[in-house]
């Protein structure tokens, strides 16, 4: 029976609870699971506010990609409510000029184009190059992006991330056990960004997942599940 503080999962842009379908049953054996509703909010701070209003007094926090930006904002505000933290495929840095321009271009394209053609292009950027022709995985991603999230929420997410704060100054203040996961072939948030986070959080453990791009929970589900279970069930001490 699942007991203790629940595990609160925050998906990323174009992602829903489906992202964690392989992890949820395993986590439920140890802790209750909650999926954050991250679909509304014009900034990372607003999304964090909305999630916190619907969250229990204490929880374990898992953030994927944009969900990691939100998780770090939650840590900045109410770290005393977070028992453990896991950051998957994310960054503590704000966008640089090139990234901001690319994000603005995606916003313009999404706002103007009512077709699904962008989904396959984005999918090919997200996954390990060995998986760019994986039609099953593409179908899964399309289902999340189109059926679960939708264009309007995706545009809101992109706008919210444009002006996100630099979370690096707050990392050293995080003292709870922290798992940091990243795909070895992640081209969106490369391993160096996770290494930077791990170096700044004393009680952290970094896992680099081989043969994996940005969408680690669905590209290498077993590796992500095992890393999260190890995090949940361990009494991590500062390294």
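^ Assign residues to that structure.
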């Amino acid at each position: 029976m699942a007991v203790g503080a629940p595990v609160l999962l925050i998906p990323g842009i174009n992602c829903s609870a489906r992202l964690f379908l392989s992890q949820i049953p395993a986590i439920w054996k140890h802790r209750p699971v909650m999926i954050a509703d991250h679909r509304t909010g014009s900034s990372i701070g607003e999304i964090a506010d909305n999630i916190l209003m619907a969250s229990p007094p204490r929880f374990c926090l898992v953030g994927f990609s944009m969900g990691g930006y939100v998780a770090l904002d939650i840590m900045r505000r109410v770290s005393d409510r977070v028992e453990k933290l896991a950051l998957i495929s994310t960054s503590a840095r704000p966008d640089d000029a090139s990234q901001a321009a690319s994000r603005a271009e995606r916003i313009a394209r999404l706002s103007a184009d009512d077709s699904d053609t962008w989904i396959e292009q984005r999918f090919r950027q997200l996954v390990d190059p060995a998986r760019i022709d994986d039609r099953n995985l593409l179908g899964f991603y399309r289902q999340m992006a189109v059926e679960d999230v939708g264009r309007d929420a995706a545009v809101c997410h992109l706008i919210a991330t444009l002006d996100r704060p630099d979370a690096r100054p707050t990392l050293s203040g995080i003292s709870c056990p922290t798992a940091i996961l990243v795909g070895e072939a992640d081209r969106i948030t490369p391993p160096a960004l996770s290494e930077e986070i791990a170096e700044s959080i004393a009680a952290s453990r970094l896992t680099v997942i081989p043969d994996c791009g940005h969408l680690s929970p669905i590209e290498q589900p077993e590796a992500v599940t095992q890393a999260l279970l190890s995090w949940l069930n361990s009494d991590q001490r500062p390294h």
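The mean pLDDT is 94.
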